[in-house]
Design brief:
The complex is a heterodimer. By secondary structure, chain A is an alpha/beta fold. Helices cover 35% and strands 16% of the residues of chain A. In chain A, the strands form 5 sheets. In chain A, strands 6-5-7-1-8-11-4-12 form an 8-stranded mixed sheet, with helices on both faces. In chain A, strands 2-3 form a two-stranded antiparallel ribbon. A two-stranded antiparallel sheet of chain A has the order 9-10. In chain A, helix 9 runs parallel beside helix 10. Chain B is mainly β. Chain B has one domain: 7 Propeller (Methylamine Dehydrogenase, Chain H), CATH 2.130.10.10. Chain B has 4 helices and 30 strands. A 6-stranded mixed sheet of chain B has the order 2-3-4-5-10-9, with no helix packed on it. The N and C termini of chain B lie close together (6 Å). The chains are: A alpha/beta, B mainly beta. Chains A and B meet through helix 10 of A and loops of B.
């Protein structure tokens, strides 16, 4: 059958398509690319997921989970009671106050990177930035050990991405797939070609790749092909990225905000089998007007997080889905002369919920003004070790960075067993 | 030109800094509140006490004489956001982040006595230097205490804005739940209530001299870098809460108030700064003044036509943001304060600066002025700064 000339693939168009999709493959991770070892296969049977709520810039512990009312460092907000008797949190979080029985708050984080780039790296990987080793983000690790093979969707998805350490030495197959703040897919992920033509193109590419692979016997060709396969599979699942149709139904539950919409999408992705989803909210870096910033940012976060918890629970997904609430740093006890709080990592707060976590617990404590940890310090390594343990991943598992074995959580990290159910 | 002379520098140090100030019915009595909800009253003697001359190592000498307060007003539990003196009823009115508006009769019998410490930061500094416990144990100041004669109840979130009509008949208040209330001050009851955009906070409000017209500024800090509710600046009928003019729509006809995208915010935020946090209506009702607040590069004061909403000119300019604005009684001058630690007085008709009261304390981000007050005779200006002072200047030597 004759076809019109635009439907023919020119050599240039073919190369352009191959390169474009290849580039996409580099930034997408599908479980199908995993060279799974025994551990990874075992863990995957657990079918656990993780949603990381990333508070970019560093939310203040004083304006969220560790208030100091009546103290010089206390600030303008007032504590409210929660459904966890004896525990109070900030009035900016009334919805989460009623979900405290489901979460575990850590009030004694003590970490080692006080600025944003280092902190973002640290709280995505568990490791400080290094010139010699590029450590993988938690998303890449969860994708490796929990990602499903041959899935239509990537195993590691970021919605409004922060952090760029990516899959590190785990390789490009565990790299994140990033959506915009509005949840839009990257432009490379779709094709504007007619499906029949797309199929013809695919067949032609396969033909060329088969011949290339036969001749050169290289992994690169296989990975290239698998990236294409994954990209093609994604086309089967594109609808999961569109929450518009459901938004009216869930708007009140998640709150009418951009972050709320992202959290709804995260639930949909987890429900569709994605192992790890990061949902970002930006920016808490309130060096000036800290209280106004938090009054603007925290309520939509509170609403969305509470909605997400309830939705996951209602669908029976919470037992298998870990929610991590974290940013890269905390904020100073002292209020500066810009009405702001600066960076602080000597004592700050994070929270965990769901899968494997003992809800209704508050771990560690700060001193009366929040300057230092009073009880039970938790390092970044301890934090990540606990997360991996909750996800049924052994934090001492080693991967090779070149010739160097690197455990998932840094050597010496301790699982905080009190946080585990 | 005006020559400001610093007459007093009152110490008002606490964990929270001074946030509001007003004169009573003369330049001799001053009321100021802070972020902790503390309210004090000072009587300023005709002749200021001499400045201390004895230098202590590591301690900076004050720039102006200090006197102690005579009265503490008990009741607020969070930031005192605004203060107003109601001359007709001889009441001080305060609004607060504790959701309440309190009316105080300063002539009423005191409810008790207290000993208070208002130089806490200086004591802490000295203790840090000397490690002598007696520094912290020094006696405080004895004051009488007073409770409010009435509380106006109606808000359910931080009351961020308050202003009275020029004739003293009405009060307008606005909160962080976007609710606006116009009050009848004589009856102490609401006349009208309305709401702004549900995502917004009412960050500033003003009434016309007769109290029938209102100017309301809405703003909210972002919910996310890509989720930024649109600011609003509107004129309202204060009798019934009907909208009269959307001024931001005049400035930006394409503005969609429901749009919260980053792109939309880029349209309006050059005009609003981080919110138009201070607004005023000229006594003749023809002009509006709005100050760009938050931490901005410009901190301009826009002068706008009330009738059309069009920009007449920008005057003044406070590096890092304006915090307060007011017209003089004759409407010829506009006063503004800001994060550059100055109160500036400009001519409305041409924007010429007549005086800059105070000076930047060096470098960026130094102890901004949070609010100011003008005495009834317009010869005195008091300014509250976040370093813990109420500075009181006399305006002298009008030249040219």
């Amino acid at each position: 059958m004759p076809c019109h000339s635009p439907q023919h693939l020119s050599r240039r168009a073919l190369m352009k398509g191959v390169l474009g999709a290849g580039a996409g493959g580099l930034v997408m991770n599908w479980g199908g690319l995993t060279t799974a070892n025994d551990l990874a296969d075992t863990v995957k049977k657990a079918n656990k997921h993780c949603i990381m709520l990333w508070m970019n810039g560093g939310a203040s512990q004083f304006e969220t989970f560790d208030m100091k009312p009546g103290r010089p460092t206390g600030g303008l907000f007032r504590p409210i009671s929660t459904n966890l008797p004896g525990t109070q949190i900030c009035e900016l979080m009334p919805q989460m106050a009623q979900q405290m029985d489901k979460i575990a708050v850590i009030r004694s984080m003590r970490t080692t990177e006080v600025d944003h780039p280092g902190g973002i790296y640290l709280m995505h990987t568990g490791y400080r930035p290094s010139n010699t080793v590029r450590f993988p983000e938690i998303g890449g690790i969860v994708a490796k050990y929990q990602g499903q093979t041959k899935a239509d969707l990537p195993s590691f998805i970021k919605i409004f991405a922060h952090g760029d350490s990516g899959s590190g030495f785990l390789g490009p197959q565990y790299q994140s797939f990033s959506l915009s703040a509005e949840g839009a897919l990257p432009t490379f992920s779709g094709s504007n070609m007619d499906p029949a033509n797309e199929l013809r193109r695919h067949e032609l590419r396969s033909f060329i790749e088969d011949r290339f692979e036969k001749e050169y016997k290289t992994d690169v060709a296989r990975m290239h092909r698998e990236a294409y396969e994954a990209a093609r599979r994604l086309q089967n699942a594109r609808t999961v990225f569109n929450v518009d149709a459901e938004w009216e139904k869930y708007r009140d539950q998640y709150g009418n905000s951009g972050f709320g919409k992202r959290c709804l999408m995260a639930r949909k992705l987890v429900e569709s089998g994605v192992a790890f989803v990061e949902v970002g909210q930006s920016s808490y870096d309130s060096h000036a007007d800290n209280f106004m910033w938090h009054k603007g940012l925290a309520p939509p976060m509170d609403h969305a997080w509470a909605g997400l918890l309830k939705d996951l629970k209602d669908r029976g997904l919470l037992e298998k889905t870990l929610i991590v609430w974290v940013g890269e740093i905390g904020r100073t006890p002292q209020i500066n002369n810009r009405a702001g709080r600066d960076h602080y990592v000597r004592c700050w707060s994070t929270a965990l919920a769901g899968c494997g976590i003992k809800g209704g617990s508050v771990y560690g404590a700060s001193d009366e003004d929040g300057y230092d940890v009073k009880d039970n310090p938790v390092t970044e390594g301890d934090f990540f070790a606990t997360i991996y343990k909750a996800l049924s991943i052994d934090p001492t598992t080693e991967n090779m960075a070149g010739l160097r074995p690197v455990p998932l959580a840094p050597f010496g990290s301790k699982v905080v067993t009190d946080l585990l159910a | 030109m005006l020559k400001p002379v610093l007459r007093y520098q009152l110490t008002f140090e606490s964990a929270g800094w001074p946030s509001a100030v007003t004169f009573q019915d003369s330049s001799r009595r001053l009321v100021a509140g802070n972020q902790d909800g503390e309210l004090y009253v000072w009587d300023l003697p005709e002749t200021p006490p001499p400045l201390p001359t004895e230098k202590k190592p590591g301690v900076k000498l004050p720039e102006g004489p200090n006197v102690s307060p005579v009265l503490r007003l008990n009741g607020h539990t969070n930031v005192v956001s605004h203060l107003h003196y109601d001359a007709a009823r001889k009441l001080v009115i305060s609004s607060s982040f504790d959701y309440s508006i309190r009316l105080w009769n300063l002539e009423a019998p005191p409810s008790g006595e207290a000993t208070v410490v208002l130089d806490q930061l200086a004591r802490d500094e000295e203790y840090k230097r000397t490690k002598k416990e007696e520094v912290r144990q020094q006696p405080g100041v004895a004051v009488k205490t007073l409770t409010a004669v009435h509380v106006l109840d109606g808000h359910r979130d931080w009351i961020m804005s308050m202003a009275a009509s020029g004739d003293g008949s009405r009060l307008i208040t606005g909160d962080a739940a976007a609710q606006v209330i116009v009050w009848d001050l004589e009856k102490r009851t609401p006349i009208a209530k309305w709401s702004g955009h549900p995502w917004n906070w009412i960050v500033a409000a003003a009434l016309t001299t007769d109290g029938h017209g209102a100017l309301v500024s809405e703003y909210r800090y972002k919910r996310d870098d890509f989720d930024i509710p649109a600011a609003a600046l509107k004129l309202w009928n204060a009798d019934d809460g009907t909208e009269v003019l959307d001024i931001l729509k005049v400035q930006f006809p394409k503005l969609d108030p429901k749009e919260a995208t980053y792109g939309s915010a880029q349209m309006w935020n050059k005009f609003t700064g981080v919110g138009l946090v201070a607004v005023a209506i000229s006594p003749d009702g023809k002009l509006l003044a709005t100050g760009q607040g938050g931490e901005t590069d410009t901190g301009k004061v826009h002068i706008l036509e009330r009738e059309t909403g069009k920009l007449v000119r920008d005057v003044s300019g406070h590096l890092s943001g304006a915090t307060d604005v007011a017209f003089s009684k004759d409407g010829k001058w506009v006063f503004s304060a800001g994060r550059d630690t100055t109160v500036r007085i400009c001519q409305v008709e041409d924007g010429k600066e007549l005086a800059a009261i105070g000076s930047s304390r060096g470098g960026q981000f130094k102890d901004w002025i949070s609010a100011f007050a003008i005495s009834p005779d317009e010869r005195w200006v008091a300014a509250a700064d976040i370093a813990g002072h109420i500075s009181v200047w006399e305006l002298t030597d009008v030249v040219g």
